[in-house]
Amino acid sequence: NPPIEGSISADELHITLAYLGEASEIDEAQREAILEACQTLADTSDAPESLFPASTGVFPPDPEAPDTEDGAEAAYYAAPAHTGGFSSLREDLMTHLDARGVSQLVSTKHPVFNPHVTLTYAPLDTPPALNLPTPVPVEFSTLIVRFANEIHTFDLQGKEAGPALPLTAAV
Question: Residue 18 pLDDT more than 50?
Answer without folding.
Answer: yes
